[in-house]
Structures are given as C-alpha cells and as structure tokens.
Amino acid sequence: MKGILGFIVVMVMLSACGGRSMSAEQMQQKLDSIKKIEVAERLAAEGINLQNSDNPLKQFYDSLALLPLPITYSDEFVRYLPNFKPVPQDIAKALDLEGNGKQKAISLSESLGAKLMLLAADEDEDATKYSIWLYSMDDDCMPVDKLCLYAIEDEEDDFDFDEEEILQYFTITSDYEIHLMDYSKEKHKTRTEEVYTLDASRNFLLQKSEELDN
C-alpha cells in the first residue's frame, strides 16, 4: 500500500511539473485525497469499512472481543493484555487515546445503556508498558467519560533509597463497582482506595475515597 501511495504522489508531482504549475493549495488537496485513501484502506484492514458504515467507532466497538466481569489487576493482565485488539490510529485519535501507535482495546458488557471499553495506551517505544483506561460511550459509541485504572509510574531514582514503592491495583466487580487501590510494597498494606460507579448519565461517579495509611 505504501508503495502504491508513493507512486501516486510521484505521479501527482510529475503531472504538476509537466503541465501548468499547481498551487500549494491544489497540491495539498491532492495529498489530502491520497491520505483519505490510505486511511480508508488501513481501517478496512482492521475490519472497518468506511464506505459501508457512517459510524466507524461503532463498527470498531462491535469487532472487539468481550471481557467478562469480574476482572482484577494481575501482572500478566497488564503485560500481555489477552484478547485485546490493536486500535487503528484514526480510532485512537477519535477517542483521544494517547500512545505510540500500538494501542489496544477490548469491550466489557454494557451497563445502564453505556457501552464500555478497556483501552491500553503503550507508554514506551517497544510496547512493553501500557496504561489502562476504562471508557464509557453512548449509543453511537462516542466517548462520554474515561477513568484511568492503571498508570505507568515514572522511572525511579536509583539513588533515592527512601522512596516508598507503591503498587497500583484495580478491580471491576460484576456489579460494575470500580475499585482503585494504591498498595505499599514495604508496609504490605493498602494506602488509598477509591470506589467508582457508573451513573445514569454514563459518567464515572466517585463513591468513596479513603486514606488507609493510619
């Protein structure tokens, strides 16, 4: 595909040189048209056909594997992201999902009419570390709200021996309660806990926030 597009670009430039000159605006329009072809073919390779659907977000959501509840944090889950599907970059942009081009997604069962997705954003060039977000969407699969379940911490200072190591955990129950916890590895106890639920407007509502380091 890249070779074909490259050939088209060259031909456009040659045609401009061989005939009357092409303005910068006309050249940009030509290149934008080529870009649209490239985007459409990339989405088609992911099972999203823009010609047959006016809602590529819904088509992408419908193509995802379903992750049953309850789910809970594990090293294996955040590292291997089982059954997650790659997110096309045009979809990632529409969802305002950060990352380095290797984002992944999986769907959850609907709750209160809200469509739910777990989205993993790659945080390093080798795609070995991911942050995980929970998205709620409306009937048209447009994002309503998002909640960070798991974030990659900054690299620790090797010489800061007093820095306490905090681990992050999350759980989503069968009743769609979302528990976020910070756990002290040194003290072997939970430091903080937050509990969220999904309200009727499809937003994540904080029900409890508790400091447990006493």
**Percent strand:** 25-35%
Assign the structural class, choosing from mainly alpha, mainly beta, alpha/beta, alpha+beta, or little secondary structure.
alpha+beta
Estimate percent helicity: 25-40%
Average pLDDT over all residues: 78
What does this structure look like?
With 214 residues, the protein is of the alpha+beta class. It has five helices and eleven strands. The protein has helices at residues 2-18, 24-45, 56-62, 75-80, 89-94, and strands at residues 66-67, 71-72, 85-86, 104-111, 114-122, 130-137, 143-150, 166-172, 178-184, 189-198, 204-211. Strands 1, 3, 4, 5, 6 and 7 form a six-stranded mixed sheet that branches. Strands 2-8-9-10-11 form a five-stranded antiparallel sheet, with no helix packed on it. It is globular. The termini are far apart. Residues 1-5, 7-19 and 156-161 have low confidence and may be disordered.
Structure characteristics:
214 residues, six-stranded mixed sheet, 11 strands, 5 helices
List the helices and strands and how they pair.
Elements: H1 2-18, H2 24-45, H3 56-62, E1 66-67, E2 71-72, H4 75-80, E3 85-86, H5 89-94, E4 104-111, E5 114-122, E6 130-137, E7 143-150, E8 166-172, E9 178-184, E10 189-198, E11 204-211
Short structural description:
By secondary structure, the chain is of the alpha+beta class. The protein has helices at residues 2-18, 24-45, 56-62, 75-80, 89-94, and strands at 66-67, 71-72, 85-86, 104-111, 114-122, 130-137, 143-150, 166-172, 178-184, 189-198, 204-211.
